[in-house]
Amino acid sequence: MGEDWQQRLDEPGWATRNARAQPLLTALSVGATEALLQDLPPPAFVAGYSVGELAACHAAGVLGAEQAVALAAQRAAEMDRDALLVDTGLAGCSGLAP
Fold first, then answer.
1. Cα separation of 50 and 56, whole Å?
2. Pair 27, 69: CB distance under 8 Å
3. 47-68 pLDDT per residue, tens
4. Which of 7, 18, 48, 66 could form a disulfide with 76 if both were Cys (CB 3.0 to 4.6 A apart)?
């Protein structure tokens, strides 16, 4: 990502690309876990969804911090590569109230 990644967060669209967002989210989660574990006992269980599974593996002691972030970068690259092969899209629902 380069040494200037913190300054680049202000650029529209820079951090929203898979190649940047997934490693950044994983690194943030890993850093938060490491900070919390300095003062708290290890978790009894962990869970993660999507790229959060890598941070959960780190919290469980299965992956090191660098491994988790590297796998997030690889995951993002594979997703971007595969998305070029097929027309894809994403739909979301918001504002649904009972």
1. 10
2. yes
3. 999 999 999 999 999 999 999 9
4. 18
The model's pTM is 0.77
* Tokens (6 digits) for 50: 């999507």
Cα separation, 82 vs 85, in Å, equals 5
Are 51 and 94 a contacting pair, CB within 8 Å?
Answer: no
Q: For every residue of the chain, which 3-state class applies, written as one string? A: CCCCHHHHCCCCCCCCCHHHHHHHHHHHHHHHHHHHHCCCCCCCCCCCCCCHHHHHHHHCCCCCHHHHHHHHHHHHHHHHHHHCCCCCCCCCCCCCCC
Greater model confidence, 89 or 61: 61
- Tens-digit pLDDT profile for residues 15-44: 678 888 899 999 999 999 999 999 999 899
